[in-house]
Design goal:
The protein is α+β, with helices and mostly antiparallel strands and about 550 residues long. The protein folds into two domains: about 240 residues, TIM Barrel, CATH 3.20.20.80; about 230 residues, Sandwich (Jelly Rolls). The protein has nine helices and 24 strands. The chain has an eight-stranded mixed barrel, surrounded by four helices. It has a five-stranded antiparallel beta sheet with strand order 10-21-15-18-22, with no helix packed on it. The radius of gyration is 24 Å and the shape is elongated.
Length: about 550
C-alpha cells in the first residue's frame, strides 16, 4: 500500500432524497446501506469546496491540476497511513511548469511509479517544461501520461489536437492522456458534455487509447452531471486520505489526488500526490502495449466485445433464449444502494424497486446485459409485480443491432409478463436493456418503479446470417399479460444509430468456444444460459454482492 496519504478534511454532504415503501408495504424493506453496514451518504467525507480557485493572475503559464476546484491543502502534521482502495496501491505525482526543473531519476528513486505532466492550459498556455518533463520521466522509467487543463468554452477539437501535436506518438509504457475538467469558465451542462465528448473522441482516435478524466465530486455534479463517460478511468481530486467522494456515476476511482503536499526527492517544494488504485500489474494493463488479446488477462482497453478470450462476458444467452433474474451476473443495479429496496415477491420470488424521480439525470437504474451466442430476432418481456409498479412513465431503453429504441410502459396497469417487442441482436455485441428512475414523476408523490426478471425468446426459425432483421432493428409492441395498452415501437420508440457498437451479425458466436454450453455456463435447469453470480446464496446475499459490484460500475 502507498505510504503517502493526506489528512482527511470532512465536509457536510447534502441530505439524500427520501425513499418510502409503496403504501401497502410501508416500512417492510431495508435500505441497502443498512444491509452493507455502511454510513449514510450524508456522513461520507468528500471533496472540500472551501478554498478559492487559483486565478490566472498568479499563473503566468496557465492553470494546473486542482487550480479550478478550490481544493484546500491538508493541515500540517504527520501523514496518516489510511488509503481507501481495493487493495494494493502505488504512489505517483502530477507536475507542471510550476514545479521548476525536476530530477526525474531522483523522483523515481523515491518510489514514484507513475506521473502525469501538463502539456497546456487549453491552447492558450503551452507548458514550457512539458518536453523536458515528458522526456525525463520516460527516461527514468516512470510510467508517464500527459494532461491538458480543459476550457469548455473554447474549441474542444483544437484543444485536443494541440495536445496530440505536442505529445507525438505514444511509446511503450506510456499511460493514456487525461482531460482536466475543472474550469471556472463554465458553460451549460449540455454544451459542456458535448465539448468533453468531442475532446475524448478526438484524443482516443489520435492515440488509440481511452483517456482518463480528472475532476471533483461537486464540480462534476454541478457543472457536467452525466454518466456518459464512466467507461473512462476516473481521477478524483479529493483532499482526503481516506475514501474519496466520487461522482455517483462511476463505479470506482483509478487515481486519487489526495493532497498538494508531497515531499518528493528531485522536486523542489510541495507537489501534488496521487494514489493509484491497484498494483503494478494493474497499472501495466493501462499502459501502451499492456493489452494483448489472448494472454489470459483482462486489462484496460479490453472488454467482452473486443477480447472475449481474456474478458469473458457476465453470461451468454443461448440460441433458444434465456431468463435474467435477480442475482444473475448480467442483471446489474446502479446508483446509491440505500435507495434500492428488495421484496420477496415477483418472478422467482424476488424483485427490487425504488422511487421514481423528477431529476434531470438518473440516480438509480437497472441494466440487463444481453450477450448472445447467436445472432437473430428475439422477443423481450419483463415481469411487473403489483403493487410495486406505480409509475406510468417507465422507459425501457433497448440497445439492439439497429440502434437504440425506447419502449414506454405504464407499469401501473401491468401485471405479469409484459412484452417489449421483437428486436434483432448480434452475437457477441454490446446489447442491453436499461431502466432509469428519472421518469418525471414528482419526488413528492413517492411513486415506485419496479425492476424484475427479463425473458429473452428466439422468434426466427434458425441462425440469422444477415445484418438486417427488422427495418430499424425492432418490431411489435407491448400488450402485457395483465394490461390492455398496445405500444408500437415505430410510433413510441426513440431510435438512434448505434451501429458502431454492434458487431456484424453472424451465425458464428463471437465468444470463447463452448462458452454458452460448456465451461462458464450456468446450466441450472431453469432455461437460463446466463452465468449467475458466484454462489448465488439467496436474494439478500445476491443483492449484497450487487451492492459491492455496483458502487458504480461501467454503464452505457
Amino acid at each position: 500500500m502507498s505510504p503517502r496519504a493526506g489528512r482527511c478534511l470532512h465536509v457536510p454532504v447534502p441530505a439524500a432524497r427520501a425513499l418510502h415503501s409503496p403504501a401497502p408495504f410501508a416500512g417492510l424493506a431495508l435500505a441497502f446501506g443498512a444491509v452493507l453496514g455502511g454510513a449514510p451518504a450524508s456522513a461520507r467525507a468528500g471533496e472540500t469546496p472551501a478554498g478559492a480557485p487559483v486565478t490566472l493572475a498568479s499563473r503566468p503559464f496557465g492553470n494546473a491540476l486542482g487550480d479550478g476546484l478550490g481544493l484546500r491543502a491538508p493541515e500540517p502534521g504527520p501523514l496518516g497511513a489510511q488509503v481507501c482502495a481495493d487493495g494494493d496501491t502505488l504512489f505517483g505525482v502530477d507536475v507542471s511548469y510550476y514545479q521548476g526543473d525536476i530530477d526525474w531519476d531522483a523522483v523515481a528513486a523515491d518510489g514514484v511509479t507513475f506521473a502525469w505532466v501538463r502539456v497546456s492550459h487549453s491552447t492558450q498556455f503551452f507548458d514550457p517544461k512539458f518536453e523536458a518533463n515528458l522526456a525525463g520521466a520516460r527516461a527514468a522509467g516512470i510510467h508517464t501520461g500527459v494532461y491538458q487543463y480543459f476550457e469548455p468554452s473554447q474549441d474542444p477539437i483544437e484543444q485536443a489536437q494541440f495536445l496530440l501535436d505536442h505529445l507525438g506518438p505514444l511509446m511503450p509504457g506510456d499511460l493514456p492522456p487525461m482531460i482536466d475538467v475543472e474550469s471556472q469558465d463554465t458553460v451549460p451542462k449540455g454544451p459542456y458534455v458535448d465539448a468533453v465528448r468531442a475532446w475524448l473522441e478526438h484524443v482516443e482516435a489520435g492515440t488509440g487509447v481511452k483517456p482518463f478524466i480528472y475532476t471533483g465530486y461537486y464540480y462534476w455534479k454541478d457543472y457536467v452531471g452525466t454518466d456518459e463517460f464512466i467507461d473512462h478511468p476516473l481521477w478524483i481530486a479529493n483532499y482526503n486520505p481516506g475514501c474519496p467522494l466520487i461522482p455517483d456515476y462511476w463505479p470506482d476511482w483509478k487515481i486519487h489526488q489526495y493532497c498538494a503536499c508531497g515531499d518528493v526527492a528531485g522536486i523542489a517544494g510541495a507537489v501534488d500526490s496521487d494514489t493509484w488504485n491497484g498494483d503494478l500489474d494493474d497499472l501495466l494493463g493501462y499502459t501502451v502495449g499492456g493489452a494483448v488479446c489472448g494472454d489470459g488477462t483482462c486489462v484496460f482497453g479490453e472488454d467482452p466485445f473486443k477480447c472475449a478470450q481474456d474478458c469473458p462476458p457476465c453470461g451468454v444467452i443461448p440460441p433458444a433464449g434465456a431468463t435474467l433474474d435477480n442475482g444473475d451476473a448480467c442483471y446489474e443495479l446502479y446508483g446509491d444502494p440505500q435507495y434500492w429496496r428488495s421484496e420477496a415477491a415477483g418472478q422467482g420470488g424476488s424483485l427490487v424497486w425504488t422511487n421514481a424521480t423528477d431529476f434531470a439525470t438518473p440516480s438509480n437504474y437497472a441494466i440487463w446485459r444481453l450477450y448472445f451466442a447467436e445472432s437473430g430476432i428475439y422477443s423481450l418481456s419483463t415481469w411487473i409485480e403489483q403493487p410495486y409498479g406505480e409509475t406510468q412513465a417507465a422507459a425501457y431503453r433497448v440497445r439492439h443491432s439497429g440502434g437504440e429504441t425506447v419502449v414506454p410502459i405504464d407499469q401501473s396497469i401491468q401485471s405479469g409478463w409484459v412484452d417489449l417487442g421483437e428486436f434483432h441482436f448480434d452475437a457477441g455485441a454490446d446489447h442491453f436493456v436499461r431502466l432509469d428512475d428519472n421518469t418525471g414523476d414528482l419526488n413528492t408523490n413517492e411513486v415506485s418503479i419496479v425492476c424484475d426478471a427479463f425473458q429473452v425468446t428466439r422468434v426466427d426459425l434458425g441462425p440469422d446470417t444477415t445484418t438486417g432483421g427488422a427495418t430499424d432493428g425492432s418490431t411489435g409492441g407491448s400488450t402485457g399479460d395483465g394490461g390492455s395498452d398496445s405500444i408500437g415501437l415505430t410510433d413510441g420508440g426513440d431510435t438512434t444509430d448505434a451501429s458502431s457498437d454492434s458487431a456484424t451479425a453472424t451465425s458464428t458466436p463471437a465468444l470463447p468456444p463452448d462458452y454458452a454450453t460448456g465451461a462458464g455456463a450456468d446450466d441450472d435447469g431453469d432455461g437460463c444460459g446466463c452465468r449467475g453470480a458466484p454462489g448465488r446464496p439467496g436474494m439478500a446475499a445476491g443483492l449484497l454482492l450487487v451492492g459491492f459490484l455496483t458502487r458504480r460500475r461501467r454503464r452505457p
